[in-house]
Write a structure and sequence with these properties.
binds glutamic acid, five-stranded mixed sheet, 30% helix, alpha/beta, D-Maltodextrin-Binding Protein, domain 2, globular, 290 residues
């Protein structure tokens, strides 16, 4: 279990939430997608061969998180997680239109993978030891940090986690965010998705909503003038791609794909066409081949 004293050292690595814009992002421009690989072949019996031969992949992602995973009115999701999934699919020779998107919420990610309801989860999914007991992770492909979302003007003058101890804060069941708050002595009001924390915050039932800074930045951007991110992250949240436990070949393949995307610019392009509308482009993290 991460302790808050340890966070001080890691928070510096997360860096401040750098905003590049402040108005609602509206409809995202069509993205410049990675070319779908043709003439690829994979060793028989591998997950890569199975997916390539089927010509489709099922991806669990968030549907209500602007910048990372947001379902559009046309039935196509948008966001950085969505683009990362497309990069993986492209490397398997699968076109974006052959990706089946399934809504994942924080609490159903491990069960979805364990039951085989999805092939991968790309859903602001923190890699940690507890989850590694039931699923495997490729990545990280981004490192976020937990922060607080408050009403515009910050009426309660909340500067960081210490200011909400013993107070009511909204977060999501099954997330590292809810657990970290509880460990810090915060009274957590739980719901199923972060967008469902906005009404309790507006109505003063909670003093803040809390999860990863980039998720909060997306919610603030989606509701111009209503909310602000405190911008004092207190954890480190390395985002991984969840897959069946111990499918080492598939995990290596995704790690190779990520490393390639870090080098050839497709990762940066994926960022710039999505989260980059609001947040500065970070440097890619180092893949952890644990
Ligand atoms: N990254 C954290 C987690 O995986 C919080 C965000 C989320 O719930 O998706 O639990």
């Amino acid at each position: 279990m991460m302790r808050f004293t340890k966070f001080a050292a890691t928070v510096a690595a997360v860096g401040a939430l750098a905003l590049v814009g402040c108005s609602g992002s509206g409809t995202a421009a069509p993205t410049d997608e990675a070319p779908v690989k043709e003439d690829v072949s994979f060793e028989a019996g591998t997950t890569m061969a199975k997916l390539h031969d089927a010509g489709k992949i099922t991806v669990g992602t968030k549907f209500d998180q602007p910048l990372f995973g947001l379902m559009g009115l046309d039935g196509n999701p948008e966001g950085f997680d969505v683009e990362i999934a497309k990069l993986i699919a492209a490397e398997l020779g699968i076109a974006p239109e052959n990706i089946e998107w399934v809504e994942a919420v924080s609490a159903n990610r491990e069960p979805f993978i364990e039951k085989g309801e999805v092939d991968i989860v790309v859903a602001t999914y923190t890699i940690n030891d507890k989850r590694k007991e039931v699923v495997s992770f490729a990545g990280p492909y981004y490192v976020a940090g937990q922060d607080l979302l408050v009403l515009s003007g910050n009426p309660e003058k909340i500067k960081g986690i210490d200011d909400v101890k013993g107070k009511k804060v909204c977060s999501v069941t099954g997330s590292t965010s809810a657990q970290n708050l509880k460990d810090a002595g915060v009274e957590v009001i739980e719901t199923d998705t972060y967008s469902n924390c906005l009404t309790p915050l507006r109505q003063g039932e909670v003093v803040a909503a809390s999860t990863d800074n980039v998720i909060l930045a997306g919610l603030a951007d989606q509701n111009p003038g209503e909310f602000e991110v405190v911008d004092n992250p207190f954890t480190e949240e390395p985002y991984g791609i969840g897959l069946k436990k111990d499918d080492t070949e598939f995990r290596n393949f995704i790690n190779d794909t990520l490393e390639k995307s870090f080098k050839d610019g497709s990762w940066a392009k994926a960022w710039e066409s999505t989260a980059g509308k609001v947040l500065a482009t970070p440097t890619p993290p180092t893949v952890d081949r644990y």
